[in-house]
Specification:
Elements lengths: L2 H13 L1 E3 H8 L3 H13 L3 E5 L2 E4 L2 H15 L8 H24 L1
Antiparallel strand pairs: 1-3, 2-3
Helix pairs in contact: 1-3, 1-5, 4-5
Length: 107
């Protein structure tokens, strides 16, 4: 994954859902770049477009495992339990929980 893909994915995990315009603002990238990267993340099974120009991440565990499954398919390797992937998914899920808690406290 590219750095921008990771950045956008983590923003979507943190924000829950986000418009293309907000992603442009938060990443300082062009609208075209945001659309292109968001479509790539959709293909990788990590985000969905919930309406035109608005995106949402899948649950972190689903998103990380979906990406791992697709990498296994591309490499023609068997999809099996991977502790590193599981731990990464747990870390991203904890990040999401912490961000949601912080957001709730500031409202």
């Amino acid at each position: 994954m590219s750095n921008l893909e990771v950045e956008i994915f983590l923003i979507l995990v943190r924000e829950e859902k986000c418009s293309r315009e907000r992603l442009v603002f938060l990443t300082n990238n062009s609208s075209n770049e945001i659309v292109e990267v968001s479509k790539e993340l959709e293909k990788k099974g990590m985000v969905i477009e919930i309406s035109t120009g608005a995106y949402r991440s899948l649950h972190p565990r689903f998103a990380i495992v979906n990406r791992y499954r697709r990498v296994c398919e591309i490499k023609n390797e068997p999809f099996k339990k991977n502790l590193k992937i599981d731990n990464l998914a747990i870390m991203v899920e904890k990040y999401q929980i912490e961000q949601n808690r912080d957001n709730a406290m500031t409202k």
